Amino acid sequence: MNEEQRLASQQIKQPKEEKDYSKYFEKVFTAPSLKDAKKRGKEEVKYHKDFDIEEKYLGMGQDRKFYIRTYGCQMNEHDTEVMAGIFMQLGYTPTEMIEEADVVLLNTCAIRENAENKVFGELGFLLKYKRKNPEMLIGVCGCMSQEESVVNKILKQYQHVDMVFGTHNIHRLPNILHDAYMSKEMVVEVWSKEGDVIENLPKKRIGSIKAWVNIMYGCDKFCTYCIVPYTRGKERSRRPEEIIQEVRELAAQGYKEIMLLGQNVNAYGKDFDDIEYRLGDLMDELRKIDIPRIRFTTSHPRDFDDHLIKVLAKGGNLVDHIHLPVQSGSNEILKIMARKYTREHFLQLVDKIKAAIPGVTLTTDIIVGYPNETEEQFQETLDLYRQVGFDMAFTYIYSPREGTPAAKMVDNVTEEEKKDRLHRLNAVVSEYSAKALKGLEGQTVEVLVEGSSKRRDDVLAGYTRKNRLVNFKADPKFIGKLVNVKILEAKSYSLMGEFVEEVTKEGEFVK
Ligand code: 5AD
Ligand code: SF4
């Protein structure tokens, strides 16, 4: 090659060979970033119809056992069902005893500090098992893994952890396990960009009576106190036909109750750009499926549209119980929480729901002790609670979450004051709950029997359509069935009743 030819050849771009260097790396390391997680990318979410485990991983779990401990919400419980399904496809068997597990996973929750502290405590405790059995793999997944500070803390202080992965890549469990077996270092694989929607993931459901069905992932609301939009990514809805198919299959398998899940379920469908289809449309379809009860959780007052209310008012298998988190009764606090509604809007919405669905039961979530919440603002929350007459509430003391706007707010409310407010709120919650239960004495209610009560085998336990716990004596053959129960006595948080008859579809009753 002469000089001229050499220069010419340098100008011609050689196609670059795409080389995969990953096999040369000993560890997989993708760390989370809260800043990146906050970005709402314009990229389209991709839908994958099928999940497949690479053949080389099948049999990985032969003679091995797994144990998963779940913290937090129902979404996490359901993610655990998916991971258990993947483990079982890989050939692992489940165990209830940590000491005999070959893989231990902690599926974590980041919503409040005490949830995180529990996980760190458990991680410390697991060191004992790891010392006894150095082959044991310990993994941390779920919402805490999506937080930078948590991953850094694990890297520094919990080096007996073998793998950390997040909420967007649980379908990568086979690869992550494989890497953890091969690597001497901690495998960290956390995606800050939300994942795609993957259908047909295997599931090992924990019950055979009630089932969870995801309808959407993520949250775009960014309430100022909440870590969820960072840990679960942007809103992505599953396609309606996939959800309808899953519910149909569950009905055919004999499930009696479906809980539709999403961090903000009534934003369902907002992200579709090819169809106009929202939660009301989905509920209207699901109503036609032959399954006794369908619920959803959790909803945001701002997205609770009139069409949804109209559809819910049709009743049938759509239960007359709505969980509607209000968080606070003060307009100033709602504003700094960035809830994007006022007390007046919320009360109007409640009136609309009550008018459309007579006798509807409403439950809620409330946070007390928000930064600088005054006594008057707290009183407004108590007042709103009474005005709505909620049946029950989950109540929390505000917990600062690193990376959220509220965590930067200066706070002048003492810990003592926050605890006192929680105490006073809980007294009101108990009063209203007791009143609602008392009102049921003498009435006959439909109960879905879930099993025997924790304390006595001959006492069965189940929930009404409005999610009230009922205990009554009856033959265990009614477990998994719908029965009518006459309420004899209201306790503080449950009801005692007397079995009347089985509710049959044909309208004949079995005593
Ligand atoms: N502190 C206290 N409670 C919180 N929640 C969410 N984030 C926080 C926080 N930082 C509560 C809200 C929400 C429920 C699931 O948890 O009430 O509705
Ligand atoms: Fe968190 Fe719910 Fe607000 Fe979303 S709507 S940011 S999940 S409290």
UniProtKB/TrEMBL annotation:
Gene Ontology, cellular component aspect: cytosol
State the EC number(s). Answer: 2.8.4.3
Chief subcellular location equals: cytoplasm
Residue span, MTTase N-terminal domain: 64-182
Q: Which InterPro entries match?
A: Elp3/MiaA/NifB-like_rSAM, Methylthiotransferase, Methylthiotransferase_CS, Methylthiotransferase_N, Methylthiotransferase_N_sf, MiaB_methiolase, rSAM, rSAM_horseshoe
Record note on cofactor: Binds 2 [4Fe-4S] clusters. One cluster is coordinated with 3 cysteines and an exchangeable S-adenosyl-L-methionine.
Which domain of life, per UniProt?
Bacteria
Cofactor(s) of this protein: [4Fe-4S] cluster
Q: Which UniProt keywords apply?
A: 4Fe-4S, Cytoplasm, Iron, Iron-sulfur, Metal-binding, S-adenosyl-L-methionine, Transferase, tRNA processing
Binding residues annotated for [4Fe-4S] cluster 1, in chain numbering: 73, 109, 143
Every copy of the TRAM domain together lies at: 438-501
Q: Which reaction does it catalyse?
A: N(6)-dimethylallyladenosine(37) in tRNA + (sulfur carrier)-SH + AH2 + 2 S-adenosyl-L-methionine = 2-methylsulfanyl-N(6)-dimethylallyladenosine(37) in tRNA + (sulfur carrier)-H + 5'-deoxyadenosine + L-methionine + A + S-adenosyl-L-homocysteine + 2 H(+)
Keyword tRNA processing part of the UniProt annotation? yes
Task: Please state which protein family the record places this protein in.
Answer: Belongs to the methylthiotransferase family. MiaB subfamily.
Q: What does this protein do?
A: Catalyzes the methylthiolation of N6-(dimethylallyl)adenosine (i(6)A), leading to the formation of 2-methylthio-N6-(dimethylallyl)adenosine (ms(2)i(6)A) at position 37 in tRNAs that read codons beginning with uridine.
Q: How does it assemble?
A: Monomer.
Q: What is this protein called?
A: tRNA-2-methylthio-N(6)-dimethylallyladenosine synthase
Q: Which organism is it from?
A: Solibacillus silvestris (strain StLB046)
